[in-house]
Design a protein that fits this description.
Beta-Lactamase, alpha+beta, six-stranded antiparallel sheet
């Protein structure tokens, strides 16, 4: 009876604790969900901005905007427009020139020589506001949502100002298909448990997932605001406080906001800014949608009872004989995977755990360690860097990569023989390992006489200092090399690059840039390092 009473108390406490944990996890999921959705939509817009920027900063376009009636310049400018239209979600461009206020329109595959002005822009004409708003905007581009008067569909409009030396020359405009952009992102909100909105800074609702099938919403004028849509003052005040933080377009400094709702059909409201715009995404969700675990409770209770009974009988003996060694083995494997150690716990034991530890150690070495030099191989580098770059991307950390090889190594092999070449590789590898001092730094035999060094959270100065130390340590080996044109001993050439990691990058991009720097070192005499800034 005492055991049963104690178990009931423990079970009740655990259920309350589990409910709180579920709420916390749901809140975190809601924040990440909104942030990822906002980032995906921002990526669409960022791509369009990048394409439009190329055209707006083209010398051919600027020359034509400054001399509109020069036919040759017009042809060159429309060649530029034709090249970007195929990359846009839209298939046409609207063009306005400041000096004449002429408006042009072009579509893909249209012959540039046949294009003539279609209208004259007028300050007093509301339909021409796109041009004059962009001309006077503090930003070089303006994002808005409006109806396409020709296609009769709602579009996201991107107006990009063309300027030279601070003087506005005109505007180019494209319309992104509204349903194409937001359809994928908000198709999952078709159930009653979730609802997604996009709002502008003044609280106007630009998109409502509950209206995605509403023809009136997608094809006609539909204006509604947060204050018209919601009566809950908590919702309204939270949204207005969030939008009030915007100064111009959002940047990376604003994080998503999650609040618990005490009433209504949804439990959480999450607000996330959409970068490059003054818009925000609002997602309403409930706990079951984010982290529904209630149907696990009967199973958990049953398992908990069995575990408690098992633990009472076996806990003391099993802890010392099985669980403590396994815990240490698991810890060592985690450190091995994170390359913070190279030893597996229990390798010295003469029992089943010892055999297991030795087998794991042997498999790890065969899979991840180069047998000649004892350095990690490319497979280990590739498997480790995905995790490392993910961590660096989230923390906005820097990554330095060095590519290096032994100068005139083929000549060394030809002169001294392959056995001597193997010893030379081993000695250089030892010098590289000796130079590395941090746990997270990785030295890899990349192939043949080529090596790679990965330095997470290392800036340009640190990487260059490291490269200089590598050069010195290899020279101090004093391995004779009479065929080396750079010195009388074995030397290395190094290429170095450093960049700030983001989610779009991969290790191959850094390796290629470091390889370019290495090629420069070889071309300029070898026995040196060359640094090149990383270009994503």
């Amino acid at each position: 009876m005492l055991f049963t009473a104690a178990f009931i108390i423990i079970a009740v406490v655990m259920l309350f604790a589990f409910d709180n944990v579920t709420k916390q996890i749901s809140s975190e999921y809601a924040e990440r969900y909104a942030a990822s959705t906002a980032e995906a939509l921002g990526a669409h817009i960022r791509k369009e901005i990048g394409i439009m920027s190329v055209a707006a900063n083209s010398d051919d376009v600027i020359d034509w905007f400054k001399d509109e009636f020069d036919e040759e310049k017009k042809v060159h400018a429309f060649d530029v427009f034709s090249s970007i239209v195929g990359q846009l979600f839209s298939y046409n461009l609207y063009i306005g020139i400041m000096s004449s206020l002429n408006e042009y329109r072009t579509v893909i595959d249209e012959i540039s020589s046949s294009i003539e002005p279609v209208a004259v822009l007028n300050h007093n004409e509301p339909l021409d506001a796109w041009f004059f708003d962009c001309i006077t905007s503090e930003n070089q581009y303006v994002i808005s949502v409006d109806i396409d008067r020709v296609m009769h569909r709602k579009r996201v409009w991107l107006d990009y100002r063309v300027e030279r030396d601070g003087t506005a020359l005109g505007v180019i405009c494209t319309g992104l298909e509204f349903s194409h952009i937001v359809g994928e992102l908000f198709s999952q909100y078709s159930n009653n448990n979730m609802r997604g909105l996009i709002i502008s800074q003044d609280g106007t609702i630009l998109m409502d997932s509950s209206l995605m099938e509403d023809t009136n919403f997608l094809h006609n004028e539909y204006v509604s605001t947060i204050r018209e849509e919601f009566s809950d003052t908590t919702i309204i005040n939270t949204i207005e406080m969030h939008t009030g933080e915007a100064v111009g377009y959002w940047d990376e400094a604003i994080n998503p906001t999650v609040i618990n709702l005490n009433s209504g059909s949804h439990r959480f409201m999450t607000i996330a800014p959409i970068k490059h715009t003054d818009w925000s995404i609002i997602i309403f969700s409930d706990t079951t949608t984010l982290f529904d675990t209630t149907y696990f409770i009967p199973i958990m209770i049953t398992v908990l009872v069995l575990l408690i009974m098992f633990a009472v009988v076996n806990s003391v003996a099993n802890y010392r004989i099985l669980f403590q060694p396994l815990s240490k083995l698991e810890d060592s494997l985690t450190k091995l995977n994170e390359h913070s150690t190279s030893e597996v716990f229990g390798a010295e034991r003469d029992d089943e755990l010892g055999h297991l530890s030795n087998t794991i150690q042997d498999l790890f070495n065969k899979a991840n360690v180069d047998p000649l030099t004892g350095l990690y191989n490319r497979r280990f580098m590739d498997s480790s860097m995905e995790r490392i770059m993910g961590l660096l991307s989230r923390s906005e950390g820097q990554l330095s990569v060095l590519m290096l090889d032994i100068d005139f190594f083929k000549r060394y092999n030809d002169t001294y023989g392959h056995d001597a070449g193997d010893k030379c590789l081993h000695s250089v590898a030892h010098a590289l390992s000796y130079t590395v001092s941090r746990v997270n730094d990785i030295v890899v035999r990349y192939g043949g006489e080529e090596f790679a060094v990965i330095l997470p959270n290392t800036d340009k100065e640190g990487a260059c200092s490291f490269a200089e130390k590598l050069l010195q340590n290899v020279r101090e080996l004093g391995i004779p090399h009479e065929k080396n044109e750079a010195a009388a001993c074995v030397t290395i050439s190094i290429g170095v690059t450093t960049g700030k990691v983001d989610y779009k990058q991969d290790l191959g991009m850094y390796l290629r840039r470091a390889d370019e720097a290495l090629y420069t070192s070889k071309e300029s005499g070898r026995n040196k390092y060359t640094y090149l800034d990383f270009i994503s």
